[in-house]
């Protein structure tokens, strides 16, 4: 996992907590903030995964060229 994947996952989890807390206490603003944090975290995590996959593909190509 790279930095974007870890930070994205953390933001997603934080969003779930905020959304649940907002629903529990009836705070619609907190609930919406949680939903936004989740979406942002999922996007960042997906970006990190894509970046990692591209890096792995480049490494594989480099190894194939060495052979």
Give the topology, please.
Blueprint lengths: L2 H23 L2 H39 L1
Describe the structure in your own words.
It is built from two helices and no strands. The protein is an all-alpha fold. The chain has one domain (3-66). Helix 1 packs antiparallel against helix 2 (28-66). It is rod-shaped, with a radius of gyration of 17 Å. It starts with a helix and ends with a helix. The mean pLDDT is 97.
Concise summary:
By secondary structure, the protein is mostly helical. Helices cover 93% and strands 0% of the residues.
Task: Output the keywords.
rod-shaped; mainly alpha; 67 residues
The helix content, as a percent range, equals over 70%
Fraction in beta strands: under 5%
Poorly predicted parts = none
> Number of domains in the coordinates?
1
Report the C-alpha radius of gyration, rounded.
17 Å
Mean pLDDT: 97
Order of helices and strands: HH
- Measured between the Cα atoms of the first and last residue, the distance is 28 Å
- Counting helices, strands and paired strands, the structural category is mainly alpha
Beta strand count: 0
Output the number of helix runs: 2
- Cα shape: rod-shaped
Largest sheet: none
